[in-house]
Specification:
Order of helices and strands: EHEHHEHHEHHEHHEEH
Strand content: 5-15%
Helix content: 40-55%
Structural class: alpha/beta
CATH class of the largest domain: Alpha Beta
CATH architecture of the largest domain: 3-Layer(aba) Sandwich
Distance between the termini: 9 Å
Number of domains: 2
Length: about 230
């Protein structure tokens, strides 16, 4: 049997995309309508944001660990979190977790290396673009990165928190993302990380002037490969 995947969710739209992708990718490997067993748990996004606004990453870690414990009791063999921003608390979680994790930025770095990209533009919440999650993983993979300027970071964060997490996807916001991506291309980026799990619901590969690294789907695909690979290797 394939391993049981536990999803530590944060925002609804990103978690739903992760779950859908696991189901679709599972069918490709296991056959029609088949996929690894999946359980998901989430505390309200408001609880996470209260901690983030207070720069309380220990509080974020406690919420993640609470979900991890719930999922372990439900039978999950390993865990994924389809939210880039809260990976800033990952180091506070990993050693105390009842189950091992895949790291979303590591999966993005792996894919970038497979495609021989050299310099990535990173898009996400303001906390993600200004935080250590991607710089650490990309540097370890010998990848350069760029982020938008302060005004662009603020506007992107506003679009994410006011629109995307609420399933609002407008042509005006897409046009703004496209403009930012063109600027990153002008700075020598050869791909762009969609480092908020809702961004791929707005920015598609066809609408981007740079190749996209869809963090949500890359994490979900890696989870399926891990879950199914464990069964195939028995």
């Amino acid at each position: 049997m394939a391993q049981h995947i536990g999803i530590v969710a944060c925002s609804a739209e990103g978690a739903a995309l992760c779950y859908r992708t696991i189901a679709l990718e599972g069918a490709k490997l296991l056959g029609p309508h088949d996929h690894p067993e999946v359980s998901m748990h989430t505390h309200p996004l408001a609880q996470y944001m209260s901690c983030i606004y207070a720069n309380d990453w220990a509080g974020v870690a406690e919420l993640m660990l609470s979900s991890a414990e719930t999922l372990a009791k439900a039978g999950a063999d390993f865990l994924v979190c389809p939210d880039n921003t809260i990976h800033q608390a990952f180091d506070l979680v990993q050693s105390r977790s009842p189950r091992p994790w895949l790291h979303i930025a590591q999966e993005v770095a792996n894919e970038a290396s497979r495609n021989h990209f050299k310099r990535l533009g990173v898009l996400g919440t303001r906390y993600l673009m200004e935080g250590p999650v991607y710089p650490e993983k990309l540097k370890a993979a010998s990848l350069e990165h760029r982020v938008p300027g302060p005004e662009e970071r603020q506007r992107i964060n506003q679009i994410i928190m006011d629109e995307l997490v609420n399933a609002q996807f407008t042509s005006r916001s897409l046009a703004y993302f496209q403009e930012v991506i063109r600027t990153l291309a002008d700075q020598g980026c050869d791909a762009v990380v969609l480092g908020c799990t809702e961004i791929p619901l707005l920015v598609t590969p066809d609408s981007s002037s740079l190749p996209t690294l869809d963090s949500t789907r890359l994490l979900a695909k890696a989870a399926v490969k891990k879950a199914v690979g464990s069964a195939q290797n028995l």
